[in-house]
Amino acid sequence: MTVRSSGSQPVRVEQDVVMARQLSRKLAQECGMRLIDLTKLVTAVSELARNTMVYGGGGDMDWQVIEDNGRTGLRITFRDEGPGIPDIKLAMTDGWTSGGGLGLGLTGAKRLVDEFELDTAPGAGTRVTITRWT
Ligand SMILES: Nc1ncnc2c1ncn2[C@@H]1O[C@H](COP(=O)(O)OP(=O)(O)OP(=O)(O)O)[C@@H](O)[C@H]1O
Ligand SMILES: [Mg+2]
Q1: What domains can be seen in the chain, in order of their start residue?
Q2: Cβ of 103 below 6 Å from ligand 1
Q3: Per-residue pLDDT tens digits for 23-73
Q4: Which atom of ligand 1 is nearest to the CA of 103?
Q5: Which residues are paired to 78 by β-bridges?
Q6: Is 51 touching ligand 1 by the criterion CB < 6 Å?
Q7: N or C: where does the chain have the smaller number of CB atoms within 10 Å of the terminal CB?
């Protein structure tokens, strides 16, 4: 796997969530992603950025344009130093929320991308990495 380009974007306040959306859209366009896939990716980014801000107390979005076996992909990690998620299985259940949301953000995001990785533990913060190939 080769990293073609990479960068980082803070996800701390509401405006950052908007920036994260716009940045992911621009990167997906530059990757030549089809509109349908681009829309899915931006929706996933929206959900994960919001979680980072709301539950993680803010964090960062790291992105990479990658190439593997001749295909191009966009890989995005959301990371925060927040409380972490005590029960991953529960958090990955449709409709489960700790905070009066719809409980569809994580599960929805997972369905919208090709690869989804959740790495979290109580007191150790949260990292969610998503990848969408073109
Ligand atoms: N970055 C995070 N740090 C700590 N807890 C998190 C984080 N992201 C998600 N969670 C926990 O996982 C739960 C499920 O998240 P999910 O995004 O699926 O639903 P939600 O945010 O509650 O509702 P919505 O459907 O509006 O997104 C959250 O309620 C929260 O308890
Ligand atoms: Mg959410």
Answers
A1: 2-133 (3.30.565.10)
A2: yes
A3: 999 999 999 999 999 999 999 999 999 999 999 999 999 999 999 999 999
A4: 19
A5: 61, 128
A6: yes
A7: N
Task: State the distance from the centre of ligand 2 to the C-alpha of 27, rounded, in angstroms.
Answer: 23
String of DSSP letters for the chain: -EEEEEEEEEE-SHHHHHHHHHHHHHHHHHTT--HHHHHHHHHHHHHHHHHHHHTSSSEEEEEEEEEETTEEEEEEEEEE-S---S-HHHHTSTT--SSSS-S-HHHHHHHHSSEEEEEE-TTS-EEEEEEEE-
List pLDDT tens digits, range 107-127: 999 999 999 999 999 999 999
Ligand 2 ion: nearby residues, β-carbon < 5 Å: 51, 105
